[in-house]
Amino acid sequence: MNLALLFEEDFTRPDRVRLTGRRLAHLQSVIKVGVGDCIPVGRVNGRIGTGEILTLTDSEAELAVAFDQAPPPVLPLTLIIAMPRPKMFRRVLQTCATLGAKDIWLINSYKVEKSFWQTPWLSDDNLRENLTLGLEQARDTIMPEVRIRKLFKPFVEDELPALLSGKRALVAHPGTNTPCPTHLNQPAALCIGPEGGFTPYEVGKLEEAGCEAVHLGPRILRVETAVPVLISRLFDACR
Amino acid sequence: MNLALLFEEDFTRPDRVRLTGRRLAHLQSVIKVGVGDCIPVGRVNGRIGTGEILTLTDSEAELAVAFDQAPPPVLPLTLIIAMPRPKMFRRVLQTCATLGAKDIWLINSYKVEKSFWQTPWLSDDNLRENLTLGLEQARDTIMPEVRIRKLFKPFVEDELPALLSGKRALVAHPGTNTPCPTHLNQPAALCIGPEGGFTPYEVGKLEEAGCEAVHLGPRILRVETAVPVLISRLFDACR
């Protein structure tokens, strides 16, 4: 937690927040703050700044907060990911949030096992919690939107073409001859398949919708590795 | 397992191997092979090719193997990482192996907790197992070397300068003004700190040894995310 992300319900006055639960435990046992210490804070979907610990008990911390800086820039990226295996999903979600992706679509694919969609990590609360952890890591405040599409064909035929409008659209596909581009200077949409990849039919449908199939070299990457490798390749993280 | 990595002890003849344990279980329960099926194989530190399943029982599989291709290119990178938290360490190690890093140094740092060095994941067998998993993911065969240095100062003063010779040497340090370079056309050495970063003293010592401090932008990344982001930025993964 490189920043405590603050939600509306945390505010008791415009410049006061009360923290409990996970964030309180982290302040006490990891950061080991005391009264008078200052920590980085951010208002969800707003600015970042500083919080001074006013009171600290076993059940809550009260902080005086002030916000004076913009959060890091948003990635101009629409990320379309075949639903990952649940044990990998939380980390993928946190990594997407840490890297600044704000527009995330979880889609079905032939090699997505039906059971993946049953994971409790897809509940609204769990999505928000894991996105929050990823934002706090990056000192970001802008909450990503996650959309779930459990039917591949209607999504790709009816929604995807409009989503790709004005963007450089790519599908990561180890079987193709075109290397993934670098350093885009325009918004992008990126489709990442499941373990084992999209099927040829699915790649064909994504191409029909406007995606270009690109590869990342001879190495096959797990989704959780492919996401940072692709984002780092497409955009300049140092902005 | 996108490739079964074969060790000397697996060979019963120059063109025959016997698989048991994890690789057998994966063949049966994930890839679901039968007699006559072919799977990608690779000889450790050698070439990749194909293995045909000759016999398959609950306790072993026998394969006829032939090797006809070079493994993916090696990254010209020396990776020097402050020992990560054990729960993260296995994934970091697998990711390094998947991405093609072959020269990995695990070093101490002020913010590395002493207990991290006690993890059983540092045993020779566990290192080999996790590096193997990373190589099998990437269809690579070249086993990385991992060296452990539990004392920061002797390593940085006595060993590091020679290690950096002929390389572009970098230390990832969020506090600096120089952005991390891209697309190096020379060998590199890259130092990555622990959670919370190297201390100013440590960054100073790394700079004295020949490293340039560079940042990756306003976002603070976990080690497991920083490794793929940095490698993707420094080298062209599509070669």
- Domain tally of chain A: 2
Count of distinct strands of chain A: 12
Beta-strand fraction estimate of chain A:
25-35%
Q: Structural class, judged by helices and strands of chain A?
A: alpha/beta
Largest sheet of chain A: 6 strands, mixed
Mean pLDDT of chain A, to the nearest integer, reads: 95
N-C termini distance of chain A: 22 Å
**CATH superfamily descriptor of the largest domain in chain A:** SPOUT methyltransferase, trefoil knot domain
CATH-level-2 architecture of the largest domain in chain A:
3-Layer(aba) Sandwich
| Order of neighbouring strands in the sheet with most strands of chain A | 1-4-5-6-3-2
What fold name goes in the CATH topology slot of the largest domain in chain A? Answer: Alpha/beta knot
- Ranges of chain A where pLDDT stays below 50 over 5 or more residues in a row are none
Oligomeric state of the chains in view = homodimer
Fraction of residues in helix of chain A: 25-40%
Major protein interface? A-B, 34 and 34 residues
Put simply, the count of helices of chain A is: 6
Structure summarized in a few sentences:
Two copies of one chain form a homodimer. Chain A is an alpha/beta fold and 239 residues long. The first copy, chain A, has helices at 21-31, 86-99, 124-138, 152-163, 200-208, 223-234, and strands spanning 4-6, 11-13, 16-19, 38-43, 48-56, 61-69, 77-82, 103-107, 145-149, 168-172, 188-192, 212-214.
